[in-house]
Structure formats: C-alpha cells, structure tokens
Fold this sequence. Notes:
Blueprint: H1 7-12, H2 24-70, H3 80-90, H4 97-113, H5 118-124, H6 127-152
Helix pairs in contact: 2-3, 2-4, 2-6, 3-4, 3-6, 4-6, 5-6
Amino acid sequence: MLPPWHPARIISTGGYVGYLPGPAGTWGSLVALVPAWFIRAWTGETGLAVAAAIMTVVAIWAADLYASARDMKDPGSVVADEFAGQWFTLVLVPNDLTLYAFAFVVFRVLDILKPWPASWADRNLPGGFGIVVDDVIAGLMGLVLMGALVELW
C-alpha cells in the first residue's frame, strides 16, 4: 500500500474522495464538477479540454501505481478516471448549474452502462490505462451528447 502522502495515492483517489462511503465513482464525478467550473471560467473550453487531457495522463500514471501497490485490477477508491471523464463531458457546457447537473447525470449513466467501445476498453486494456480509458471514452461520448444538448438549449 502506498503511504497516505504519496502523490499517486492522492491523485488516484481524487484527494481521498474515493474513500468516502457509498459509490466512489459518483462522489468522484460530483467533486470533479467544482474544479471543472473554475477551470472553464478561467480558461474557457480549450482550457478545460487541455486540463482533461492532462488529467487523463496523470490519472493513468497514478491509477497504475496505486492499483499495482494494492495488487488489484481496478480499485474502487480510484476516482481520478471520473475526474478526466467528467471534465471531457463538460468541455462544451457553459457554466450553468442546470447544464452541469445534466452533464453529471449523462456521464454517470455512460460510465455505469459502459456502451461500446468503453466496455471493450474496461475489459481488455491493462493497468492504469485500462482503469482510466473506459471513463475517458464515456466522457467523450458525453461530450458529444452534451454538445448537441447545448446547441439545442
């Protein structure tokens, strides 16, 4: 087990959000809304897209190290993947509470149902890459759906 101060543990668990009781993925997606709001307010769509891409790379590294240290394929306490996926879903969403709430639900549904190719990635990709990429795929699907919704809104 990595010590509590280890960066991979802090990042992979979303600042320990992954240890909250109940569905860790839902907590991670919910908490991810807050930094996404500020990132988008300060840097716009492009900044949030870049932040989501950076989070993806960092989350792969952290989740891989954390899962290896715990000798688990996909520890439930890892929520950095939810941060990356949720942020991708929000890229085209203006800072509006109603749209953020809808984007949260859209991402959670896609993350839980894992439509293809997210389901394939979840089953077949190894290590941190496998832990994170299925959520990123779900997030990109959410981006398309939310982009269409925002256009109609």
